[in-house]
Amino acid sequence: MRTVWRFIHRTLFWSYERGSWPYDVLVAVILIFVLLTPRNWFHDRPRESEGASLDVQLVARDPVSRTRTYRLAATALSHDKRAKNPTPELERETHDILGRTVDDLKDSTFQIVRIDPQLASDGSVSYYDVSVHQ
Fold first, then answer.
1. Tens-digit pLDDT string for the chain (134 aa)
2. Which residues, other chains included, contact 117 with Cβ-Cβ below 8 Å and sequence gap of 6+?
3. pTM for this predicted structure
4. Helices (H), strands (E): how many in the chain?
5. Longest Cα pair distance anywhere in the chain, in angstroms?
6. What angle do CA 75, 79, 84 make, to 5 degrees?
């Protein structure tokens, strides 16, 4: 029994000498785990999904002032970033989303002029109308 506990203790605290067969076995087990573990076990996918571009729609365009208004679904934002009043954090997040998903805004400089949250009947934000100057 003492040998089993010593094995567990040495394994947990990684106290085998480098180059010994238990050390090599532990390294092999770690490599096998890293290389063969399915990606979806860790939920480390980027937030963007294939349908992310559907969360942003062009609503209005004003060529004179060079502004466009996009409708951004509130579900495109993480729950903690949604706000009923425009905040600098909300502005940063919407700027990042628009820059990634709208083809006309990719690789270009633009400024968010106004963010108008549109509330649902239950008081939660359903989408944002975001005016952008390019």
1. 888 898 888 888 888 899 999 899 999 999 999 999 887 787 765 555 444 445 888 999 998 988 999 999 988 888 777 888 888 888 999 999 999 888 888 888 999 999 999 988 888 889 999 999 98
2. 83, 84, 85, 86, 125, 128
3. 0.58
4. 3, 4
5. 83
6. 85
